[in-house]
Specification:
The complex is a heterodimer of chains A (110) and B (115). Chain A contains no helices and 11 strands. Chain A has strands at residues 4-7, 10-14, 19-25, 32-38, 44-51, 56-59, 62-67, 72-77, 86-94, 97-100, 104-109. In chain B, strand 7 (64-68) and strand 8 (73-78) form a beta hairpin. The chains are: A mainly beta (110), B mainly beta (115).
Chain lengths: 110, 115
């Protein structure tokens, strides 16, 4: 059974800091891995999608990596801003069914 | 904006009642999935519909059922509501391509409270 774990559960950083969010999964048989952002009480906004054959994806200040063999992904956020404050969720796709971690709650202080 | 809409935004029901939640997918997306997100947890997969047929189900009882219509709309029905059904319900649409994982686009969710 696939299990997805995100560490840390919560993170507080000063504005401008670079940071890394971690995601690990137990079963490497995945189609892709997606990183999402969720603001309180809201839906999910897709940030990056990495196909199983890819190693990384970049969008603006965000960079996500995928190491299928070790069951790990990282989301790197450069030069963090208060507007980045949200919960970040990773999810692995097993045939259209997304298995989510519990998220990392990020707070960026001005 | 993902182009995926859900209604209603909020809903309050009492235990034992039935509820229908609605989702409108992006045009051209033939797959819709439903997820339940309890407070402080990651979303849990309920089921997926592909071309109007159920195509995979998570660990949810039969009182959770769904429908998908040709006009890119879909429904999640929950019978005999229980207190633990209180959650944010999310739908996600995608264009299913065989052998390739497709990006899923989520709606804003419906917050269901069961009293």
């Amino acid at each position: 059974k696939q299990e997805v774990t995100q560490i840390p559960a919560a993170l507080s950083v000063p504005e401008g800091e670079n940071l890394v969010l971690n995601c690990s999964f137990t079963d490497s048989a995945i189609y892709n891995l997606q990183w999402f952002r969720q603001d309180p009480g809201k839906g999910l906004t897709s940030l990056l999608l990495i196909q199983s054959s890819q190693r990384e994806q970049t969008s603006g200040r965000l960079n996500a990596s995928l190491d299928k063999s070790s069951g790990r992904s990282t989301l790197y956020i450069a030069a963090s801003q208060p507007g980045d404050s949200a919960t970040y969720l990773c999810a692995v796709d097993q045939g259209g069914k997304l298995i989510f971690g519990q998220g990392t709650e990020l707070s960026v202080k001005p | 904006e993902t182009g995926v809409t859900q209604s209603p935004t909020h809903l309050i029901k009492t235990r034992g009642q039935q509820v229908t939640l609605r989702c409108s997918s992006q045009s051209g997306h033939n797959t819709v999935s439903w997820y339940q997100q309890a407070l402080g947890q990651g979303p849990q997969f309920i089921f997926q519909y592909y071309r109007e047929e159920e195509n995979g189900r998570g660990n949810f009882p039969p009182r959770f059922s769904g429908l998908q219509f040709p006009n890119y709309s879909s429904e999640l029905n929950v019978n005999a509501l229980e207190l633990d059904d209180s959650a944010l319900y999310l739908c996600a649409s995608s264009t299913r391509a065989s052998g390739v994982g497709d990006e899923q686009f989520f709606g804003p969710g419906t917050r269901l409270t069961v009293l």
